[in-house]
């Protein structure tokens, strides 16, 4: 019996490879799960916001109901916080979901979308799944070359994707460059600014983009509660956009794409200023600790604005496996066109120290 055949562009998709799970690593290496340190997926080393956890406990008795498909409470909480209207928002099952919604709503087969070399993997995946063409613009210093990306826009381009800061490189484009990109692309092209790591930026660099929406209705800002808010396992993200764009995106959204516990937790987490402050402080100190460690080992790294940092090591794949044997999971990024680098998520001080000691052994310096 011959199975139905998916379109060629779907069959050509190379599936996303996530960070290696703790349980799988424990099984394969015969280690105890508790002894494994995962620094592979840019997750929060501080766990989730305690306020979010308390809110979830209080919401368990309504799980037999469908969630509120309109996301009323969460949209209102976000709108208050961001100074926008609820109809500027689209909620997603993680920001991965909203990034796909933009692609699904605005791309046709044969259209094109622009993104950078070393950009977040979900952009090519979302574009390919539709049969659209990705235009990959060479990176500048591992980051987005926004002038070149603007110049790469063609008549059939519908979307430009920009992560700022970018993952996996941690690079940051000054907001004035992002503004210049918006000034230079046609208004008919959506500019998706992915701000998954915005909360980690120092005060002076925090994003001004929501204030630009009135001037640029083609601007789409995506954010997540997976990183600084520590809710990766619940899956909550959102888009801030012009109401007309949000309305179109909502048409292709599953009616109940964000679950009840995720929304309840997100509302509570948004109010947990103390947790975010702790997260930001731990991250800044951790980046400094990791940079100092890399310098001491004579390793080159890419200065990062995220909750992770990318370091160049000879024989990255071997070093990755040596780290695994010591129970430390980091992220190889050959799939991002960086076979000589490893990406490590910032941990607690003692976790960073354990990783650095393991790295020293893995590269044969101890
Ligand atoms: C740049 C960037 N955007 C979006 C995401 C998606 O995160 P989530 O779907 O958990 O919101 C990630 C996650 O790694 C990311 O690095």
Task: Give structural notes.
The chain has 13 helices and 13 strands. Helices cover 37% and strands 16% of the residues. It has 366 residues and is of the alpha/beta class. The longest helix has 24 residues, at 273-296. Helix 5 packs across helix 9 (243-251) and helix 11 runs parallel beside helix 13. Strands 2-8-7-6-5-3-4 form a seven-stranded mixed sheet, sandwiched between helices. The chain is globular, with a radius of gyration of 21 Å. The structure holds pyridoxal-5'-phosphate. Pyridoxal-5'-phosphate (PLP) is lined by residues 42, 94-96, 120, 163, 167, 194, 196, 224, 226, 232, 237.
Strands in their spatial order, largest beta sheet = 2-8-7-6-5-3-4
State the helical fraction: 25-40%
DSSP, total strands: 13
Number of helices: 13
Output the radius of gyration. 21 Å
Outline = globular
- The succession of helices and strands, N to C, reads HHEHHEHEHEHEHEEEHHHEEHEEEH
Ligand identities:
pyridoxal-5'-phosphate
Poorly predicted regions: none
Calculate the terminal CA-CA distance, rounded to whole Å: 58 Å
Helix-strand makeup class: alpha/beta
- The fraction of residues in strands falls at 15-25%
Query: What would the average pLDDT be, to the nearest integer?
Result: 96
Sheet with the most strands? 7 strands, mixed
Entry keywords:
366 residues; single chain; alpha/beta; binds pyridoxal-5'-phosphate; seven-stranded mixed sheet; four-stranded antiparallel sheet
């Amino acid at each position: 019996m011959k199975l139905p055949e998916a379109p060629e562009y779907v069959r050509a998709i190379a599936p996303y490879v996530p960070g290696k799970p703790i349980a799988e690593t424990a099984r394969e290496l015969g280690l105890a799960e508790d002894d494994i340190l995962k620094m592979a997926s840019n997750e929060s080393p501080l766990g989730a916001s305690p306020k979010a956890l308390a809110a979830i406990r209080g919401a368990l008795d309504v799980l037999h109901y469908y969630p509120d498909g309109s996301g009323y409470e969460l949209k209102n909480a976000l709108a208050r916080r961001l100074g926008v209207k609820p109809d500027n928002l689209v909620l997603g099952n993680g920001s991965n979901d909203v990034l796909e919604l933009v692609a699904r709503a605005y791309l046709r087969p044969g259209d094109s979308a622009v993104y950078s070399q070393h950009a977040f993997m979900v952009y090519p995946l979302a574009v390919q799944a539709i049969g659209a063409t990705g235009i990959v613009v060479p990176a500048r210093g591992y980051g987005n070359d926004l002038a070149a990306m603007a110049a790469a826009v063609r008549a059939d381009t519908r979307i430009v994707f920009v992560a700022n800061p970018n993952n996996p490189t941690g690079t940051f484009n000054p907001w004035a460059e992002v503004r210049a990109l918006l000034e230079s692309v046609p208004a008919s092209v959506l500019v998706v600014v992915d701000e998954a790591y915005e909360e980690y930026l120092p005060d002076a660099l925090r994003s001004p983009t929501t204030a630009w929406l009135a001037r640029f209705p083609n601007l789409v800002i995506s954010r997540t509660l997976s990183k600084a808010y520590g809710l990766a396992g619940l899956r909550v993200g959102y888009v801030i956009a012009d109401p007309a764009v949000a309305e179109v995106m909502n048409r292709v959204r599953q009616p109940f794409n964000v679950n009840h516990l995720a929304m309840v937790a997100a509302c509570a987490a948004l109010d947990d200023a103390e947790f975010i402050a702790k997260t930001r402080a731990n991250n800044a100190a951790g980046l400094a600790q990791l940079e100092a460690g890399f310098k001491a080992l004579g390793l080159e790294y890419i200065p990062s604005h995220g909750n992770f940092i990318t370091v160049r090591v000879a024989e990255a794949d071997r070093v990755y496996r040596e780290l695994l044997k010591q129970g430390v999971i980091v992220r190889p990024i050959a799939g991002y066109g960086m076979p000589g680098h490893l990406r490590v998520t910032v941990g607690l001080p003692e976790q960073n120290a354990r990783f650095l000691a393991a790295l020293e052994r893995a590269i044969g310096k101890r």
